[in-house]
Amino acid sequence: ISNELILAIETSCDETAVAVIRGGKEIVTNIISSQIETHERYGGVVPEIASRQHVESITLIMEQAIREAGINFRDLSAIAVTQGPGLVGSLLVGIVAAKSLAMALDLPLIGTHHIAGHIYANQLVHELVYPCIALVASGGHTELVVLESEGVFRIIGRTRDDAVGEAYDKVARTLNFPYPGGPHIDKLAQSSEEEIVMPRAWLDANSYDFSFSGLKSAVLAAINSAKMKGETPRQAALARGFQASVIDVLVTKALRAVRAEGAKQLLLCGGVAANGGLRAALTDRCAAEGVPLLIPPLVLCTDNAAMIGAAAHLKYKRGEFTSLDMKAEPGLSL
Ligand code: KG4
Ligand code: ZN
């Protein structure tokens, strides 16, 4: 059993996060400093403000992580950081901090893909069996990824427009919920007895791609037409219809992919993995079809640095290090 300590940094969006991971498995500390309160009043993440806040917090959060871990900077074996995708100004802050530490401590630097992080969050709590399939559902991504073997990814489906979390946030905003709106819509949907049936975007018969902008527009149109008629929109019934459409498409495509690829497990990850309706529906369908389903605990679903440490550890084992002139890659592919 390895016990090297990796300090991981994640600043791709609006969370300043630092974690220390032992042996790629044990979370020694996992600090997430959220900027939600700041961005809430703008109804979404403001990139300029996000990067300035990262600058203000990153050093303090790194020091806090080391203190809470009860270790010394000198005890670390490597420094990991999210290289992309994400907001370039936000990524840069984490990358500069990681490079400085790596240089000062003479440690290897490991640039990590944000989505690989979301996927390998599962590794912190489960054993992965290959080939498996990950359904990545977050505010920035909606992807079906085949993991052929450790660290070998093949994307078979992606969204052609909005990410699923983004669609949640936009619908929520129209119903006057604060950012991020996903949890509010989830709660509303689960509280409703009624459902206004919404369209499902299956796309071509064999496609694993997704599209959520038509669904989002259908919900927004229903809300606006009610408002124009001076009626109160049937918020809960709309939320339920929206959520039912999202879940139906995600679950159906994910399970079709599992069968077609002969996957041994289905992994759910990304912020939308927090969705109660989605978790329940996937749990039921996977149980019915005998497919092992892995979902990380909630804190490891939304953006965090522990997942970056987990993904980085795979590269550490293989000695795959990143040069100190590494750049932020806002559009980095898996
Ligand atoms: O993975 P994440 O923290 O950040 C990105 O990498 O995008 O995901 C954040 C997204 C937001 O769009 C948020 O509204 C959504 O996850 N989300 C939810 C729920 N909790 C968070 N969406 C639906 N239902 C939820 N319970
Ligand atoms: Zn994310």
From TrEMBL:
Q: Name one GO biological process term.
A: tRNA threonylcarbamoyladenosine modification
Q: Say where the protein is mainly found.
A: cytoplasm
Cofactors demanded by this protein:
Fe(2+)
Listed binding positions for substrate are V136, A137, S138, G139, G140, D169, G182, D186, N275
Q: What family does the Swiss-Prot or TrEMBL record give for this protein?
A: Belongs to the KAE1 / TsaD family.
| Entries under NCBIfam families matching the protein | gcp_kae1, T6A_TsaD_YgjD
Protein name in UniProt: tRNA N6-adenosine threonylcarbamoyltransferase
- What species is given as this protein's source? Paenibacillus baekrokdamisoli
Gene (name only): tsaD
